[in-house]
Amino acid sequence: MHSTDIAHAPTPEPATGDRRRWFALAIVMTAAFMDLVDVTIVNIAVPSIQRDEGATFSQIQWITAGYALAFAAGLVTGGRLGDIHGRKRVFLVGIGGFTVASALCGLAVNPEMLVASRILQGAMAALMVPQVLSIVHATFPAHERGKVFGLFGAIVGLGAVSGPLLGALLTEGNLFGLEWRPIFLINLPVGVAALFLGSRFITESKAPRALKLDLPGVALVTLALLMLLYPLTRGRELGWPVWGYVSMAGALVVFAALVAYERAKGARDGSPLIELSLFRVKSFAAGIAVQTVFGVGLGVFFLVWTLYMQIGLGWSALRAGLTGVPFSVAVSVAAGMSVQQLVPRFGRKVLQAGALVMAAGVLIYLAEADHYGLGITSWQMALPLVVMGAGMGLIVAPLTDAVLSEVPREHAGSASGLINTVQQMGHALGLGLVSVVFFGVIDERLAPAEVGPAFVDGFTHALGWVAAVLGAIFLLMFALPKRPAQHVEGAAGAEEALVTGEKEPELVP
């Protein structure tokens, strides 16, 4: 059945008596958890990969940035493919591909194979992740969705906390002498089980009016980002050649071509990858800028932080993972308070306070890292990490609702997909900028005794940049609405709109 066949089909409410929906929920939540953990688990293992595989620092950046770039470029298209061909079908293709890509990552024989496998893994995640909330929406009746979306939020928090710890335990455990490889291979049994159970328990659904694919738009976005990111990550290694600057300038031309193409496609068939009319909404345009810049800051911080602790300070992966626990806990606690208690009372000021609190935490960390040098302890890091985590929690939970609050409801799906996409793109750009703000101040050839002090200097330099980014975010937030409009479904509605602009998908027997 094609999308044109169901454009005027009636929309049945999902049945409440079918117990299979809870199995379906467990399966899609597991897939979402796999993706969340996979992003954080790799960061903690990066120094081990670099040491064991002899990877260059630009290859290390691409192991993380390649995933983020492929994920970002494919998110909107992944959602559309689910709308057109069926969410269950595309979800199963995505989780099957993600499992195969995880196996290729775990069996990689050199850094080049690992980078390629990570890019494939990101592309498969882009097929899998957008279907999760769409399947939930199609499977559960309206009165149960609030509880289910709350559970989804808990899974997100659990993924953020457990990813670094799981990565540390698997890396340190050196299971069967495989060193870092189990961080990827652990996905195999989980993925196979989800594939088998998903085919049995997930109900198929499609959007009543699925938009067409915009593959040229995806190609232009990907090309522009590659032209920008590749010279950034390789430039230092290659001595900043002229072609790198030409490529980065050319990326702006490609972005301009993308805007022109999207405008023409929107006029032609009403299904562009990027709905340009949304940028006339001031709060949305500012929110997209906030999401992008925030992604850049997080991309820089998390990779540099891991390299600083494990290579600069010489800590084990387990110690680095445990050191990050106060940060993760603070994010989860502050996020809950932000949405439930603070934003309803104080509105936009909560998000701005979050940017300032997070910047304060970064500056405290910078001062402590500079003061204690190589003698710094995990306990001394706890204060700045808790402050940073609290600030981040105040921002991340309510930001999507704030950005969407003035967007016309018929464009909610396009707007939410774009929000997630630009944050991932910002993250990839931040990972690329690590070459400039961190490695750019470290000499290429260091004696063993010089590595620690050089990495401490690089870390403090990068933290200065992160603090500046947070200052820019604080200023951009003045363009957000003072009080986000209260939607009927609240945050759950924003999460739901993330994956589909269609409010009621059709169940397909």
Descriptors:
about 500 residues; mainly alpha; disordered N terminus; 17 helices; two-stranded antiparallel ribbon; disordered C terminus
Tell me what you see in this structure.
The protein is mostly helical and 509 residues long. The protein is 77% helix and 1% strand. It is built from 17 helices and two strands. The chain has helices at 20-53, 57-85, 87-106, 111-139, 142-173, 182-185, 187-201, 215-238, 242-269, 282-312, 317-323, 325-346, 348-372, 378-404, 412-437, 448-476, 490-497; strands at residues 204-206, 506-508. It has a two-stranded antiparallel ribbon with strand order 1-2. α10 (282-312) runs antiparallel to α16 and α12 packs antiparallel against α13. The longest helix is centred in the first third of the chain and has 34 residues, at 20-53. The protein is globular. Residues 1-12 and 487-509 have low confidence and may be disordered.
Write the layout of secondary structure elements.
Elements lengths: L19 H34 L3 H29 L1 H20 L4 H29 L2 H32 L8 H4 L1 H15 L2 E3 L8 H24 L3 H28 L12 H31 L4 H7 L1 H22 L1 H25 L5 H27 L7 H26 L10 H29 L13 H8 L8 E3 L1
Antiparallel strand pairs: 1-2
Brief description of this entry?
It contains 17 helices and 2 strands.
Largest sheet: 2 strands, antiparallel
Global mean pLDDT: 83
What is the tally of beta strands?
2
Q: What is the helix/strand order?
A: HHHHHHHEHHHHHHHHHHE
Strands side by side in the biggest sheet:
1-2
Query: Radius of gyration in whole Å, from Cα?
Result: 22 Å
Report the portion of residues in β strands. under 5%
How far from one another are the termini? Answer: 11 Å
Oligomer, anyone? single chain
Helix/strand class: mainly alpha
Overall 3D shape? globular
Helix content: over 70%
- Please, how many helices? 17
Uncertain parts: 1-12, 487-509
